[in-house]
Design brief:
The complex is a heterodimer. Chain A is of the alpha/beta class. Chain A has 2 domains: 7-125, no CATH class; 138-244, Rossmann fold (3-Layer(aba) Sandwich), CATH 3.40.50. Chain A has 13 helices and 8 strands. Chain A has helices at 14-18, 22-33, 49-54, 57-71, 82-98, 102-112, 118-125, 145-150, 155-162, 185-188, 190-205, 217-229, 239-244; strands at residues 7-10, 37-39, 77-79, 115-117, 138-141, 168-170, 211-214, 235-238. Chain A has a 4-stranded parallel beta sheet, with helices on both faces. In chain A, α12 links the parallel β7 (211-214) and β8 (235-238). The relative contact order of chain A is 0.15. Chain B is an alpha/beta fold. Among the domains of chain B are: 66-303, NagB/RpiA/CoA transferase-like (Rossmann fold), CATH 3.40.50.10420; 408-497, no CATH class; 552-722, Rossmann fold (3-Layer(aba) Sandwich). Chain B has an 8-stranded mixed beta sheet with strand order 8-5-6-9-19-16-15-18. In chain B, β5 (216-218) and β6 form a beta hairpin. In chain B, 54% of the residues are buried. Classes of the chains: A alpha/beta, B alpha/beta. The interface between A and B is large, with 80 and 81 residues. The structure holds iron/sulfur cluster (SF4).
């Protein structure tokens, strides 16, 4: 279903390439399962989020220009990271505006208009609900701040999860409160960041979920890092990995 | 000596200390959760909230773009109404002006309404140095002052204290500076509020000088608007002979009509109420109705320099509602003291660095990083200040400053190394291969100890171990036919966008040659607005609801419902029944004396058996205090918010009448009832001294729970006279 086969350029993000390759692999699996062509522009590295967020604007804009060149030939760019997509959409243009560079601003706004977060692409562009996944677990979804407030997505990803066979989606209390990752914040204000993360972990644990998923591995690394240090049994997975899962039917 | 903030340590250190305080975290979590829920509920009641936010932002933009003409217009109008306007470039000038004004009265003490501007300039310290005692009268400020503490919230400075801590402060400290707290004081908020009422009562009644701020100052009429809850504001604004208001220049509104937006945005965003219990509106001096001398101190203190920067301009829209604090997950855990100044939370993190351009301390430079950029503040802000974006821009300024002053700073070196690894896919692949090697060594076990500065991560969190196989090598293997020519693209050279190596603030030509503070402030504004693109922004569109659709009966029902919700008693009556009803209401509360205005008709009082006093000639404040009740008419009532507006007109008399006696009876004719706030304003004249009343006096200062009964009348009886 959905529109005819599309050619999708994957932006996997710097973090996923080496640390969480299962996530972009899952994206490839789902998109190919739905009949679309996936290409991987190999020059890609990082969108510049870390630099832009932390105040390293020239470095960040350098990486932003690089991003634009790498992807300039593609009409559809999909990424399994709400914060990277949020950066491209919100911070690219704003950072160019801050240095009064109208040409750069226009270039960056143009590339931004072609970038989609993975679940957003499924929901808003391909308009699919059921991606043919089967995952028989109790799952909590954490709407990360970028997915919720920058990209404005909450129902879309939850809807995709509800259509996964066997999956039980639980409500997390205060789901919209930040987990405390915040990029450089996690280091510069480590104590506050951890306190926020502990509270998030407590809310998630209160639901009895076996698995916590989200649209961003960075937030998940933070929550997962706390939970693994505390020897919690909570499993951390990117939403894409759940959508790719095709667990055999249990006997 | 009044305490001042610890400005030696940066935010992360102060926050870490605060996080150890379990009681503080419990108190803050309880209070912020309470207020967040309340705010959400009352915001959801308005279908035009987003349109109101847009209008709020647009009006403020208009004000800032036209600040020089508006502020001069304001001065003219305040002067025309008998006020005196003073201009202060900075904290020192403002404090000097206020100290001199108080000294000229010969008084040794003043009563104060909570005001952020006076906290910002540390006025109390300056007064104290000159032998003048400033008594804070807002409940939360009183708690802070008695406890020799520091404010930790814009609206509720004692938010970090819970009821039992407050009880202890009252028991220990009240007796040292006045009437002690009763020894059987409980920790019930109503009891605590009653203790504050008793402690401050005589001080209010005898005060000769009041000091306030203002929420809004209206350029085309010279009216000041002070929004409050407890009635302490009304006491300080109406009873003393001299009133001094210290107000930031950005508090201007162009005209009366603008209030229709802000009197909806502010109460719902700050205390989560449809309308705050009391709003006072006054212009200069009204003979026989309030202070006989009024001074307005217009404060710059960094505001006009912030105006020259686009982000600074956005931040100056702030109406100090504190919604952003209440929704901030960082504030909720670290509390206000960690921000090291009276403006904490998200607004503090952007406002303080803006006001302190060119002279920031390390603490102030750490504030833009005191955020996870979660965006909850922007979502809540009634004037749509994009706080996360401004934080990011401010971080850039901090980094650029580092580049100038400490080029070898380890963070700079690390960040530039990381950037260079991302600048070529070759280098990046090298880094990934190195990671894969570590991954094989760890065999999937998470990393528990990382080298500095990453040890800050691994102190509480495991770090993920790199995967043995990267995505790119998997993709290459599994997709050998993928179009390599297209995906392997050669890049053209990129422009390096290094910052210009200059401090944009220091070498800006300073307009210090001007002779007077006024000239200097106006010159800075003019210069800032010359540079700005959107300076002469247009007036806001009124896309929000301007009139309601309810019938008279429905308006009456709504008004009743809203009044009762805020603990007023309401009785419907025909005009013929009013005299008997007044007698019943007075008797029910045991009132043996009642005061009315000079023009109050005898006919309405014919059944009243209590002693009737007319305010003619004007009664003294202590005479008023001996009277049990007041009966007044009103100018207009707003159904949607349960608000009754008194404008010192017919059957009302001066403002003190409806303030001092403890039992207030208000008569409303049904033709005075409108549905929405925007319908009320055209029925009022901006320069009439007004009191907007929504319920009995109340406070949310103890754990952010609303309780009725503080300094203003504790009983409000409303009579709806049906025609
Ligand atoms: S920044 Fe916005 S939300 Fe925060 S205090 Fe100011 S007006 Fe209120």
């Amino acid at each position: 279903m959905g529109p005819a086969a599309m050619k999708v350029a994957l932006f996997i993000t710097c973090v996923n390439d080496g640390l969480f390759p299962d996530t972009p692999r899952a994206v490839v699996e789902v998109l190919e399962r739905l009949g679309h062509e996936v290409v991987f522009p190999t020059e890609q590295t990082c969108c510049g989020q870390m630099h832009l967020n932390a105040g390293y604007r020239p470095e960040g804009l350098h990486l932003a220009q690089r991003f634009r060149q790498v992807f300039s030939d593609y009409d559809v760019i999909v990424s399994p990271s709400a914060s990277c997509v949020g950066t491209v959409r919100e911070l690219y243009g704003d950072s160019a505006r801050a240095i009064n560079d109208a040409v750069l601003e226009e270039e960056l706004e143009d590339i931004a208009s072609r970038v989609y977060e993975f679940s957003e692409f499924l929901t808003n562009v391909l308009k699919v609900d059921d991606v043919g996944a089967r995952f028989t677990h109790r799952v909590a979804y954490h709407p990360t701040c970028h997915s919720l407030r920058v990209l404005g997505m909450n129902e879309g990803p939850k809807n995709l999860l509800r259509h996964v066979e066997g999956l039980e989606l639980v409500e997390v209390p205060n789901e919209d409160s930040c987990c405390g990752f915040g990029g450089m914040f996690a280091i510069k204000n480590a104590a506050t960041s951890s306190a926020m993360g502990d509270d998030k972990l407590t809310s998630v644990s209160s639901t009895g979920a076996e698995v916590l998923c989200a649209l961003d591995n960075s937030c998940l690394t933070h929550i997962g890092g706390l939970s693994s240090r505390q020897d919690s049994k909570l499993r951390i997975m990117h939403l894409a990995e759940i959508l790719a899962a095709q667990e055999p039917t249990r006997v | 000596m009044s305490r001042v903030f610890d400005t030696e340590k940066p935010f992360p250190k102060l926050a870490k200390e605060a996080l150890q305080d379990q009681q503080l975290r419990t108190n803050l979590a309880h209070a912020t959760t309470t207020i967040r829920d309340k705010r959400k509920r009352v915001v959801a009641e308005l279908s035009d909230w987003e349109e109101l936010r847009d209008a709020g932002a647009a009006i403020k933009d208009y004000v800032l773009g036209n600040l020089d003409t508006l502020v001069v217009e304001l001065e003219k109008n305040v002067t025309r109404h008998g006020g005196v306007v003073h201009w202060a470039r900075d904290a020192q000038e403002a404090n000097d002006i206020v100290v001199a004004l108080v000294k000229a009265t010969g008084e040794k003490s003043v009563v104060k309404v909570k005001s952020m501007a006076t906290a910002e300039i540390e006025l109390n310290v300056a007064l104290e140095k000159n032998g003048i005692t400033a008594y804070e009268t807002d409940l939360a400020e009183l708690i802070v002052q008695l406890g020799d503490d520091l404010p930790s919230h814009i609206l509720v400075p004692a938010i970090h204290k819970n009821r039992s801590q407050i009880r202890q402060i009252f028991l220990d400290e009240m007796g040292k500076s006045g009437l002690p707290a009763p020894s059987n004081l409980t920790d019930e908020p109503a009891d605590l509020a009653a203790a504050a009422r008793a402690h401050l009562r005589d001080r209010f009644l005898s005060a000769k000088v009041g000091i306030s701020g203002a929420n809004f100052i209206i350029a085309d009429s010279g009216a000041l608007v002070v929004v409050e809850s407890e009635g302490n504001g009304r006491m300080c604004l109406t009873l003393p002979e001299t009133l001094i208001s210290v107000v930031g220049v950005e508090k201007l509104l162009p005209d009366w009509q603008s209030l229709e937006v802000f009197l909806q945005l502010l109460p719902r965003s700050s205390t989560g109420e449809r309308m705050n219990p009391y709003t006072s509106i006054f212009s200069g001096v009204t003979p026989g109705n309030g202070p006989s001398a009024f001074h307005l101190v217009l404060l710059d203190n960094g505001r006009t320099s912030a105006l020259a920067e686009p982000d600074g301009r956005d931040v100056l829209r702030c109406i100090r509602c504190s919604a952003c604090l209440n929704v901030c997950p960082v504030y909720e855990r670290t509390g206000g003291h960690s921000y090291g100044n009276p403006y904490p939370g998200p607004i503090g993190a952007v406002l303080v660095p803006q006001l302190r351009r060119g002279e920031r301390t390390p603490l102030e430079n750490s504030l833009p990083y005191a955020s996870s950029l979660c965006g909850a503040c922007y979502e809540a802000c009634p004037v749509k200040i994009e706080i996360p974006k401004i934080l990011v821009r401010l971080r850039s300024e901090v980094v650029d400053e580092k580049r100038r002053d400490h080029a070898h700073n380890p963070e700079l070196v690390a960040m530039s190394f990381v950037e260079s690894s991302f600048s070529s896919s070759k280098k990046f692949e090298g880094a990934i291969r190195l990671g894969g090697f570590i991954g094989r060594l760890r065999r999937g076990k998470p990393l528990r100890h990382l080298p500095p500065p990453l040890n800050k991560w691994s102190a509480t969190r495991d770090a993920p171990v790199p995967s043995k196989e990267s995505f790119r090598s998997w993709f290459k293997e599994t997709h050998p036919s993928s179009d390599n020519a297209a995906t392997k693209k050669s890049l053209s050279p990129l422009r390096k966008l290094m910052p210009e190596n200059r401090n944009p603030f220091n070498d800006k030509k300073k307009v210090t040659t001007s002779s007077s503070a006024k000239d200097a402030i106006l010159a800075t504004i003019a210069e800032a607005n010359d540079d700005a693109h959107e300076s002469k922004a247009n007036r806001a569109q009124r896309n929000y609801l301007l009139a309601g659709t309810r019938s008279l009966d429905e308006r009456v029902e709504l008004l009743k419902d809203r009044l009762i919700d805020y603990r007023a008693s309401v009785t419907e009556s025909t005009s013929a029944e009013v005299p008997a009803l007044l007698q019943r209401l007075l008797e029910a509360r045991g009132a043996s004396s009642v005061v009315v205005s000079a023009d109050f008709p005898d006919g309405l009082l014919q059944e009243v058996r209590a002693t009737v006093r007319r305010d003619e000639p004007a009664l003294s404040t202590s005479e008023l205090d001996d009277i049990d009740a007041t009966i007044v008419g009103c100018a207009v009532a707003i159904a949607q918010t349960g608000t009754i507006v008194l404008d010192s007109g017919e059957l009302q008399g001066r403002r003190a009448l409806s303030l001092v006696p403890d039992h207030l009876i208000v008569l409303i004719n049904d033709d005075q009832i409108v549905e929405l706030v925007p319908e009320a304003l055209p029925r009022l004249r901006p320069n009439d001294p007004q009191t907007w009343i929504s319920g009995p006096s109340a406070t949310s200062d103890i754990e952010l729970e609303r309780i009725e009964g503080v300094h203003g009348p504790r009983i409000l009886d409303v009579v709806l006279v049906r025609s």
